[in-house]
Amino acid sequence: QVQLVESGGGLVQPGGSLRLSCAASGFTLDYYAIGWFRQAPGKEREGVSCISYSDGSTYYADSIKGRFTISRDNAKNTVYLQMNILKPEDTAVYYCAADLMHSRCLPSGPERRDHAYWGQGTQVIVSS
Question: Which of 4, 24, 41 has its CA nearest to residue 124?
Answer without folding.
Answer: 41
